[in-house]
Fold these 2 entries.
Entry 1:
Amino acid sequence: MSLPVSGAESHLITAASCAEIDKWVAKYPPERKQSAVMAALRIVQEQNGGWLSDGLIAAVADYLGMPAVAVYEVATFYSMYQLEPVGRHKISVCTNISCLLRGSETVVAHLERRLGIKLGETTADGKITLKEVECLGACVNAPMLQVGKRYLEKLTPETLDALLDDLQGDQVNG
Ligand code: FES
């Protein structure tokens, strides 16, 4: 990925997304509107089917009056942002210490086996992306994963199978 270059890219953000971003901008003093950068990235990512293109990163920079590189730094630091296209559903599996101690390796192996893909890959039908992430703050109920806006905790082979059946049948959003 090349470094995004800002330059009048704001037109890439839809009117609906602008309205959403403006709600976040309004929470901060006018001279601090860049504080809305994380929300803005989330909003335009959703607008774009789950990932951030160079153009959208530059567009957020333009919109918030920030250097493109500063927005790029945020987009590359946090695991909830995707810099490449993803499947319709993204499964983010925590493999950090508590989850590791409670069996995240087994969780990953189960998911990889059933989906026929490795971490970081997307199924051929474009439905599911499997992603490894750092601690998501649900250590007490490890092992866990995130899909869409939902946390699934105390994972077992049965709960994983139920999740995959739902996602492959598109029975749930996430
Ligand atoms: S280590 Fe997995 S949620 Fe904290």
Entry 2:
Amino acid sequence: MTPDVSTDWIEGGAAVVYQHCPSCIHTWYFRRSFCPGCGHAAPSTHTSAGLGSVHASTLVHRAPSDEFRAIAPYRIVLVDMAEGFRMMGHAEPSLAIGDPVRCQVKTIAGRALPYFDREPE
Ligand SMILES: [Zn+2]
């Protein structure tokens, strides 16, 4: 089965899907039924273009499970996405703070997870 490109990776798709509040203009990730900023009950839902820049980066040496120990050390980043929300994902080992990145959903340690590659400027 090919993952749906408009369904969030958490729900088995191949996309990053974020939400936006039409009342207070707050933008967030992950899906909720109301705005975490003002409580508005009808947030809009959008598919991210997958572009952003690295806000923080760490190299994980002590992995949380046998599956992840097999790929350690591996890089985890926090990314400021172009649409205005921040998310975490696995990443290319050479990435550093400020690098432009693109997200794709990849199979990592047997799971479909967001992975950031360097985006040519
Ligand atoms: Zn709001």
